[in-house]
């Protein structure tokens, strides 16, 4: 420890006395900050609602979709958990606007057919139209919205999408019944999905 302090003093041209006086105060502040934030499980066990769990700096709160249990993870990890259907960002569950808005990292389902959603640049959403059809997705302006590559999604989902620039894009999807490719082909009709996305 003392050797590290000497090196810092030499690098920054600070006297050893100043470093020895300031370092304990920095360590004390860091220890106090870390001690105030309990793990998500400890917070819930002490009576905190899962949606009100606090995370340490640099982590975001994700709530499990099945049981609502909280987890504090990096932002990049949260996208993977959402894409796999494990959870949703707690902030999104508070901010989702009924019908017209879509919070970052939410799930778009068939119930959004014909609707317009508003997202912000950098927001992501999971397109989950189900696995009863073979889906063909098209986006008219991929400079506004595009699929995030190299992310494996859960069964029934058609990809994780990200907003890149301000503007409007239209995402359309055609769902062909699986029996359409069988011999003889079935008479079940295809279905169509349309979503207008406005990026602010």
List the helices and strands and how they pair.
Layout: H1 2-12, H2 16-36, H3 40-45, E1 60-64, E2 70-73, H4 75-83, E3 87-89, H5 90-95, E4 106-108, E5 116-119, E6 124-127, E7 133-139, E8 145-147, E9 159-163, E10 167-177, E11 191-199
Parallel strand pairs: 4-6, 5-11
Antiparallel strand pairs: 1-2, 1-3, 6-9, 7-10, 8-9, 10-11
What's the short story on this structure?
Helix content is 26%, strand content 29%.
Structure commentary:
The protein is 26% helix and 29% strand. The protein has five helices and eleven strands. The radius of gyration is 24 Å and the shape is elongated. The strands form three sheets. A four-stranded mixed sheet has the order 4-6-9-8, with helices on one face. Strands 5-11-10-7 form a four-stranded mixed sheet, with no helix packed on it. The protein has a three-stranded antiparallel sheet with strand order 2-1-3. The termini are far apart. The protein has helices spanning 2-12, 16-36, 40-45, 75-83, 90-95, and strands at 60-64, 70-73, 87-89, 106-108, 116-119, 124-127, 133-139, 145-147, 159-163, 167-177, 191-199. It folds into two domains: 2-36; 41-199, Immunoglobulin-like. It is an alpha+beta fold and 200 residues long.
């Amino acid at each position: 420890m003392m050797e590290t302090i000497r090196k810092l003093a030499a690098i920054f041209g600070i006297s050893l006395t100043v470093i020895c006086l300031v370092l304990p105060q920095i360590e004390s502040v860091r220890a106090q900050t870390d001690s105030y934030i309990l793990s998500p499980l400890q917070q819930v066990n002490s009576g905190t609602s899962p949606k009100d769990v606090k995370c340490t700096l640099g982590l975001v709160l994700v709530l499990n979709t099945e049981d609502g249990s909280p987890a504090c993870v990096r932002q990049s990890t949260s996208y993977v958990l959402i894409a796999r259907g494990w959870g949703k960002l707690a902030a999104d569950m508070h901010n989702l606007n009924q019908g017209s808005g879509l919070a970052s990292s939410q799930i778009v389902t068939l119930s959004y057919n014909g609707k317009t959603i508003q997202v912000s640049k950098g927001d992501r959403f999971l397109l989950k139209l189900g696995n009863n059809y073979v889906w063909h997705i098209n986006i008219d302006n991929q400079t506004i919205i595009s699929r995030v590559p190299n992310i494996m999604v859960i069964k029934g989902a058609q990809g994780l999408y990200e907003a890149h620039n301000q503007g409007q894009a239209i995402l359309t999807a055609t769902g062909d019944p699986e029996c359409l490719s069988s011999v003889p082909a079935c008479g079940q009709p295809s279905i169509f999905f349309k979503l207008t996305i406005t990026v602010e």
